[in-house]
Description:
By secondary structure, the protein is mainly alpha-helical. Helix content is 68%, strand content 1%. Residues 1-11 have low confidence and may be disordered.
Amino acid sequence: MSAxxxxxxxxxxxxxxxxxxxxxxxxxxxxxGPVHAERAAxxxxxxxxxxxxxxxxxxxxxxxxRLSAVAWTLETGVSDDPHLAALLALQADTxxxxxxxxxxxxxxxSDLTPVRMPDEDALIRYAWQVAGTVGLMMCRVLDVDDPRAxxxxxxxxxxxxxxxxxxxxxxxxxxxxxxxxxxWVGEIEPAAILLPSPSLEPTxxxxxxxxxxxxxxxxxSAEAGMGFLPPRARLGILTAARMYRAIGARIAASGYRSxxxxxxxxxxxxxxxxxxxxxxxxxxxxxHRRDATHxxxxxxxxxxxxxxxxxxxxxxxxx
Length: 319
């Protein structure tokens, strides 16, 4: 499938945002091809922009008001804010539905109150809001129109978000957030995570281990659906996924300890993972098949979310 016309070119600042804040994906984006890489930079810059609105405001009410204003702007489709105007232009160029972006904003808004994740289903729903929705938007960015691809794209977003949470247990605790489900670790307060007692450390390690085991289920599903992507984009997304999986391996190698450290991939590790992805791309026929059947059990917790998103999209199309 050939890429459509690029439409809106990203500003140099969008590429710089991706380079500075999304280093893993920036490295993989060079494999996407120029049109898709440019679009991905615009989408990433928007996601970073709204994430910064949520985390960078002086108080939760101010952040909530700003995010609400962004949602209203996206629904009206007119903005002179360069970040939002670029996203709206990208939407028009790719026929990308705006509903996933609104769901993303709702997920970020939920972070403005103290986070105490109750159970695994709630965790999956949150990961869908803030990352699975980005997978949906990436489908259009990459010119994927086959609806069979969407569940696999959601799974990749969920997998990456679970990796992020496993990596940032301490960083999130400093922001009064505990994404480790209480059904796994109990009703731990974030302050206790920052300086865990010797008796608490095994619980945190086990919770982080379970996060990464869960992430692996979603990564495996995402790889099964790689064949729905255009070939060059397929290689780029596969590389990004393999790099993110490597972050999980780093966390595991540290004994699942991420409350006082943050796992990162160095340049050599990224090159190694990229080479492995290229080799798999060339030798593994399963990555190019378009007959994968999605395991619906992975998204049982999302039934209301996904059907609600589809209903909102249908209502918008008929308006």
